[in-house]
Specification:
Blueprint (H helix, E strand, L loop, with lengths): L1 E2 L14 E4 L3 H12 L4 E4 L11 E4 L2 E4 L5 E2 L3 H9 L6 E4 L2 E6 L2 E6 L5 H4 L8 H14 L20 H8 L2 H12 L11 H7 L7 E4 L5 H8 L2 E3 L3 E7 L4 E6 L6 E5 L1 E4 L3 H7 L5 H8 L3 E11 L9 E3 L8 E6 H4 L9 E7 L1 H6 L5 H15 L1 H10 E14 L5 H11 L6 E3 L9 H20 L9
Parallel strand pairs: 2-3, 2-15, 3-11, 8-17, 15-21
Antiparallel strand pairs: 1-11, 4-5, 6-10, 7-10, 8-9, 12-13, 13-14, 16-19, 16-20, 17-18, 18-19
Helix pairs in contact: 1-8, 1-16, 5-6, 5-7, 9-10, 13-14
Length: 464
């Protein structure tokens, strides 16, 4: 299925054509920025619809955002894209109340109010000095933790695990009831996670949040409607030629397609990109093939009565449950996620659990989740089971990148080794911090490099 660009948004002048492989947020941002600059752009997507991990599924009136659910106001580049698409009226400032479970109760704090951590009762007053040290570190390192960077500056901080940092700079209480549950947002645990991930995640706990009124894929569906997106188009190879690129793709029931363009942007997970671009440098292919993604299984429950929990999400330290990481209350993020009078909740696990149960069928995963709810939060388990009218299991093979100490230094070396003059440019979460806004930023960076390659001139950062 091909979506024809809206004439009101096509470029004023025709320039060199570009092919983008992958219609996630990275690929479509790249395509949109190139289209703004006058390049004819064609997006090839293997799935039957665009969006990637910024996609929403509708079931029985529930809108289930499949991956990206939490958007923060310091996603400056995403906010700029929303403005440039003229869809600011589809967004709103949202509830940013976070809960952390401890000793059988939920301690709640507002994400943009660090002082709530003291008032919530989550930590003893003896942890206040640790909190002060953390805030000082965040101010000190702010310049190295930026969404629009290639993580080169952050690599200088990548010397220890989140657990080691907590033991060195914070205290045991802080480690167990703040650092550990924050690590669960990466489906991980502090001993296996670089301190950079923890430090990078903390602005989300010191920020206002925003979202789209009804569904998070408002952004990607708007982009898809304004671009030439060919769906069900499985790309099999991207090769650089003497004066451009050649892209091979197929669709069931059709002969193989071959298209040529001035350049291509491959916006797919690292291992997939490696398989499609065998002509890249051996060191590049080796890095791409070994990007350390971890899997995720999460389970949605629609219920016909809204629970009393006011938080958008409740985090579970391992002291509360070894496997369950987060329960989100999606109806509290923004309206439109559930029918009137109903609620939508989602349970997320740390990745070892997902790996252990990856091959289980959906009914088994749902039953296991009910049992885990009974162990971790009996009152909520009873509410879900008494009022459930929908369940949905979502699996992501390449959910998020597991960054251990030293990985950001390797990422810096990888980014520095990429050829900015190549007619095949890369975009995706593995080029920066593994988050939606970072993926978007890599798409803009790839578009800028492609423009420089095909026009033979420099293009200012942040300009189209």
């Amino acid at each position: 299925m091909t979506h024809t660009p809206n004439p009101a948004h096509t470029a004023r002048e025709s320039k060199e054509p570009v092919i983008v492989v992958g219609a996630g947020i990275a690929g479509m941002t790249a395509a949109f920025r190139l289209q703004q600059a006058g390049h004819p752009v064609r997006v090839l997507e293997r799935e039957d619809r665009a969006g990637g991990r910024m996609r929403t599924v509708r079931r029985r009136g529930y809108h289930m955002d499949l991956a990206a659910i939490l958007l923060i106001e310091n996603y400056t580049q995403m906010r700029d894209l929303v403005r440039d698409l003229d869809i600011e009226d589809t967004t709103l400032r949202t509830n940013n109340l976070v809960g952390i479970r401890r000793d059988g109760r939920v301690h709640r704090l507002r994400a943009n109010r660090p002082t709530d951590l003291k008032r919530s009762g989550l930590l003893p007053w003896s942890s206040v000095p640790a909190m002060v040290r953390l805030q000082a570190d965040l101010r000190k390192y702010a310049g190295r933790l930026r969404w629009n960077s290639d993580m080169g500056e952050a690599a200088t901080l990548d010397t220890e695990t989140a657990a080691a940092y907590a033991e060195r700079r914070l205290d045991t209480e802080f480690r167990d009831y703040v650092v550990d549950p924050m690590s669960a947002m990466f489906f991980n645990s502090p001993p296996d996670l670089s301190v950079v991930n923890f430090l990078f995640s903390m602005p989300a706990v010191n920020s206002e949040w925003f979202n789209f009124h009804d569904r998070v894929d408002t952004l990607t569906t708007t982009l898809a409607a304004r671009l030439d997106v060919e769906t069900r188009a499985e790309v099999t190879q991207v090769e650089e030629t003497s004066d451009g690129v050649r892209v091979h793709w197929r669709r069931e029931g059709e002969p193989e397609h071959t298209e040529e363009a001035a350049a291509a942007i491959v916006a797919l997970p690292g291992p997939v990109a490696a398989g499609l671009c065998p002509g890249l440098a051996p060191s590049t292919l080796d890095y791409l093939a070994n990007v350390p993604y971890v899997p995720d299984i999460h389970v949605y429950f629609g219920v016909d009565r809204v629970p009393s929990e006011p938080a958008t999400c409740v985090l579970f330290p391992q002291r509360e449950h070894a496997d369950l990481g987060v329960i989100t209350f999606n109806h509290n993020f923004a309206p439109g996620r559930a029918p009137q009078g109903h609620a939508l909740l989602t349970s997320y696990y740390r990745y070892p659990w997902a790996m252990a149960h990856w091959d289980d069928d959906d009914d088994t995963v749902e039953a296991l989740t009910h049992e885990i709810h009974r162990q971790a939060w009996p009152e909520m388990a009873r509410h879900i089971e008494a009022h459930q009218d929908m369940a949905y299991v979502q699996r992501w093979k390449n959910a998020v990148i597991l960054r251990k100490p030293g990985d950001y230094a390797r990422l810096r070396a990888f980014n520095q080794g990429l050829d900015p003059r190549s007619r095949i440019q890369l975009a995706g979460d593995y080029l920066g911090f593994s988050a939606t806004n970072s993926s978007l930023v890599t798409g803009e960076r790839a578009a800028r490099r492609v423009r420089e390659v095909v026009t033979g001139g420099a293009v200012a950062a942040g300009r189209v």
